[in-house]
Design brief:
Elements: H1 5-13, E1 17-18, E2 20-24, E3 31-35, E4 38-43, E5 46-53, H2 59-65, E6 67-72, H3 78-85, H4 91-94, E7 101-102, E8 110-111, E9 116-128, E10 131-143, E11 149-153, E12 156-160
Antiparallel strand pairs: 1-11, 2-3, 2-6, 4-5, 5-10, 6-9, 7-8, 9-10, 11-12
């Protein structure tokens, strides 16, 4: 017995997910794409996974470069999320504002005001159906304590604020 594609997609839309831009830079060039299928695998060694459609323009770039940064988006990044999700938008347009981007350890682009940036090397890729599952070892982390979160739930964006006890005080 198999489940219909539309029924499965409707069920997954009810599973809230952080919204991320996965970026890469290296011999195959610079690329980034919006991704919501990201989760932790283990903390020893710190490893996460990201599911990337193999037919996407950037899949081969990420695979060839062997490095990625998972930029977990903050509430103010809805527009950036949409830009990186638009098929065919050129890398130059996606990374147009150089002041928004820098690097940590691997050279993959890091969004300066992301809620969290996880800079990684790709350890393995397993093909499952239409997607490649990237297993990525975290090399460096940047956490923005003041950022509100952005999640995607029921095919819409929603903003989350951390509890007051976890929110960093504003800089003077």
């Amino acid at each position: 017995m198999s489940v219909e594609k539309d029924q499965f997609r409707a069920a997954m839309a009810r599973m809230g997910a952080a919204v991320c831009i996965v970026t890469s830079d290296g011999p195959a060039g610079r690329h980034g794409m919006t991704v919501s299928a990201v989760c932790s695998v283990t903390d020893q060694p710190a490893t996460l996974l990201a599911c990337i459609n193999r037919s996407s323009r950037g899949y081969q770039t990420l695979k060839t470069n062997g490095v990625v940064c998972v930029n977990v988006l903050a509430a103010q990044h809805e527009g950036l999320c949409r830009l990186f999700a638009t098929p065919g938008s050129p890398a130059a347009e996606r990374f147009a504002n150089e002041l928004e981007w820098d690097t940590l350890h691997t050279g993959a682009p890091v969004l300066r005001d992301a809620a969290v940036a996880l800079d990684c090397t790709v350890d393995a890729i397993n093909d499952v159906g239409t997607h490649g599952v990237l297993f990525a070892r975290v090399q460096a982390i940047r956490i923005n304590e003041r950022a509100d979160g952005l999640i995607y739930f029921a095919r819409a964006f929603h903003h989350l604020s951390p509890p007051a006890a976890l929110r960093a005080p504003a800089a003077d």
